[in-house]
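Second attempt. The first submission of dTDP-4-dehydrorhamnose 3,5-epimerase had a stray character pasted in from the spreadsheet, which I only caught after the job came back as garbage. Lesson logged: always re-copy from the clean sequence file. Corrected sequence (194 aa) follows.
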Amino acid sequence: MGKFKIIETPIKDLVLIETKIFRDNRGFFMETYNQKEFEEIGLKLNFVQDNLSLSKKGVLRGLHFQFKYPQGKLIRVIKGKVYDVAVDLRINSPTFGKWYGVELTGENGLAFYIPEGFAHGFLTLEDDTYFFYKCTEIYYPEYDSGIIWNDPDIDIKWPLEKVEELIISEKDKNLPKLKDIIDKLKEEGNWIKI
Ligand SMILES: Cc1cn([C@H]2C[C@H](O)[C@@H](COP(=O)(O)OP(=O)(O)O[C@H]3O[C@@H](C)C(=O)[C@@H](O)[C@H]3O)O2)c(=O)[nH]c1=O
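This time the job returned cleanly.
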């Protein structure tokens, strides 16, 4: 088998990627992305921007998406631990409004591929969490959009018992609910349909 293996999630096109880790007495080595091997497992992607964020424990970033020029994101935690969540916002998707969450760590070798058309957010479960992701579209601040992390209609089960205090940006505290933006998403030509 190759160095990468797809693990399906209950949401179509939203996948985890198990990665081969070469361990020895120095530590480990792993490839984190390889265009040819990704194409062989069905992920033909064109990345144009890489991002890195550092967070302390209890930081919640999200739920974000780019309304125009949506971004696919290939995510890895380099150090630390997060609970990472994607929400399907693709119009006509049988799983529209459904979420999927997974624990990513600096050690478990798991990557998460979130395609265009999803909102994304994460909660850090350890201090000094380095969160790295590759994007299929560049950042357009004017189209930066989001949904509030605790939207009752989405009802994400964040593992909040694992943190003492949530740390959220002012921008993220004021994001709308899905029901307030759904009409805008559904307007013809505005957003991703499947
Ligand atoms: C996302 C982003 C932010 N910035 C700037 C804008 C701002 O001054 C500063 C911090 O931005 P934010 O507060 O939006 O950063 P953050 O809350 O970490 O935003 C990220 O959250 C996760 C959940 C995602 O899915 C990402 O796509 C992105 O939206 O960095 C860029 O220059 N380029 C970028 O691509």
